[in-house]
Amino acid sequence: MNRRDFLNRCVSTMEGLTLSGSLLTTTGGVLFNQTADARSGHKLPNIVFIFIDDMGWRDVGFMGSRYYETPHIDKLAGQGMIFTNAYSNAPNCAPARACLMSGQYGPRHGVYTVSNSDRGPSKHRKLIPIENTTDLRSDIVTIAEALKPAGYISASMGKWHLGTDPELGPTGQGFDINVGGFSAGQPPKGYFVPYGNPELPDGPPGEYLTDRLTDEALKFIEANKNKPFFLYLPHYAVHTPLQAKAELVEKYKKKRGSGDQNNPTYAAMIESTDQGVGRIMDKLDELNLTDNTVVFFFSDNGGVRTITSNAPLRGGKGMLYEGGIREPMCVRWPGVVKAGTCCETPIIGVDYFPTLLEIARVRKPKGKLLDGESILPLLKGGNSLNREALFWHFPAYLQGRAEGARDPYFRTRPAGAIRAGDWKLIEYFEDGALELYNLKDDIGEKKNLANVMPDKTKELHQLMLAWRKATNAQVPTKPNPEYQL
To answer: Is 84 a residue whose pLDDT tops 80?
Structure first.
C-alpha cells in the first residue's frame, strides 16, 4: 500500500469516518506488576514526546491537509500508528498540559483554563465560574518523577505553562533539564531573537525559536545516547504570535490554499516544526537509537478558527466541540507498533501517563491515582480499551467569537462533555441545555439529537453525573449579580 492509499484509508472521507471502540472511566488508576530491572540486561526504551501547541486535527498531511506541508511528520506517522480519535483533556493550553503531566482529570488538580475563569464581559456571564488555579501542585507526581526510579534522565524543552512559582517549573516537577519552560503560554517577545525567555539565553541574531528548541533536543539525545531518556518537547509553535521565516512565508504565498487553510505564515510555522521533527528522527537514526525509541506526536488543543480550518469538525480552540479537543496523533515504535496502521479507538491525554509507565516497566507511584488507561494494548494491535466513556469538565468562561461557537460572546460557557462509543453529550451549566451527537453519522456535530433521543441523552447524562461525583467535579451555580439579560 502506497502512502496516498494509506492516508486515504485513514482520513480521506472525513464525513464518513468510522468511529469505534468501547470506553470506560477509571477513577482508581492502574497498577503495573512489572518494574524496571537493570539486572535483566534488557535496555529500556527511550521516549520522545513531541507536543505541539494549537495544532488542529487536520493541520498535517497525514490527517488530510493539502496546504500545509509536513513530509517528516507524515513519514513518522507512516512508520507507526495513526490515531484518528485522539483527544486532549481540554480545549486550551494549560489544562491540557496539567492533565498530561499528572495523568488526572481536571477536577483532581483544578487547572481548568488559562488564567482566570471569569473571562469575557461580566454582563454576559450568568454564573460565577469555579475558581481556576494556574499551578500544578508540587504534591502531584508527574510523568518525569514517576520515570525517575527506572533510571530515566528527563528533559522538558519548550512551553511549560504550569506554574508561576519557579519551584513549580519543570525542574521542580521531576525533570532533570529545562530549556525554555516557565509560566508563559507563548513566546514573550516572539519567535526570533531576542526571546525574552528567562529559561532560554538568546542565540545569534535571526535565530528561530522552533529551530533552537530542536537544536537543544538534539544535544540532549546525543549526550544521553547510552542511557534511557525521556525527551518532552512541548514546542511553543504553532501558537501565536504568527511569525515565521521569510523564505517559507513567501513559498506559501505562492501556493494556493484550500478552504480556510490558506494562511502562509501559519503554514510556514508548521513547516519549520516539521523540519525539526525530521532532524530529530535523523539523529535517532544516526545514533542507532530508532529501534529502541518510542516517539509520540500530539497537540494540546484544536486549531484556532480564525487562523486555520478543522473541517469537517465543528469549532476550534476554546470549544468542547470536536474541533477544540480532537488532535492529530501518531506513535512510532519499531518492533512493537506495526508500521502503516490506523487506530480508531478513542483515547485522551490522561492515557499517556499509564502508557509511559507500562512502556518503561515501572510501577505506578505509591498512592498515585490515575484516570487514564494504558494504550499499549492498542499499540500492539488491539482494537479496544476497557472503559465506558471519556469526560471533559470546563466550569469556566472563555471569551471570543468564533465560527462554530454556540453564541456570539463566548467560545464556550461553563460546560461538560462525555463521549461513549459513537455518542457525545455536552451539557451547558448556565441553562442545563443538553446537546447529543452521533459522531459516526455526524462528525461535524450539526444535528442535536437530545430531544429526539431522550433515553440515550439520559443515559449519557447519568454517566456524566456519576463521574462528577466520583471526581468531586465542581459545577458553578452561584448567579452573577452583574449579569444583564
So the answer is: yes
Q: Are 79 and 296 in contact (CB under 8 A)?
A: no
Rg (CA), the chain: 21
Q: pLDDT averaged over the chain?
A: 92
Q: CA of 315: how far to CAs of 323, 381, 392, 470, in Å?
A: 5, 32, 16, 29
Q: Is the predicted pLDDT of residue 23 greater than 60, yes or no?
A: no
Q: Evaluate whether 420 touches 460 at the Cβ level (below 8 Å).
A: yes
C-alpha cell at 210: 522552533
pLDDT at position 10 is 57
In the predicted model, what is the mean pLDDT of residues 332-345? 98
pLDDT of 382 higher than 50: yes
337-356 average pLDDT score? 98
Q: At what angle do helices 209-223 and 264-286 cross, to 10 degrees?
A: 10
Could you tell me if 349 and 100 are in contact, meaning their C-beta atoms sit under 8 angstroms apart?
A: yes
Residues 146/368, Cβ–Cβ less than 8 Å: yes
- Residue 128 grid coordinates: 460565577
For 3-388, CATH number? 3.40.720.10
In 180-236, the DSSP E strands lie at 229-234
Question: In 3-state terms, the chain is what percent helix, strand and coil (to 5)?
Answer: 30, 15, 55
Give the pLDDT of residue 139: 96
Specify the pTM: 0.92
**Which of 300, 369, 275 lies closest to 29 in space, CA to CA?**
369
How far apart are the C-alpha atoms of 392 and 412, rounded to whole Å?
13
Q: Which residues of 158-173 are buried (b: 16+ CB within 10 A; e: fewer)?
A: bbbbbbeeeebbbbeb
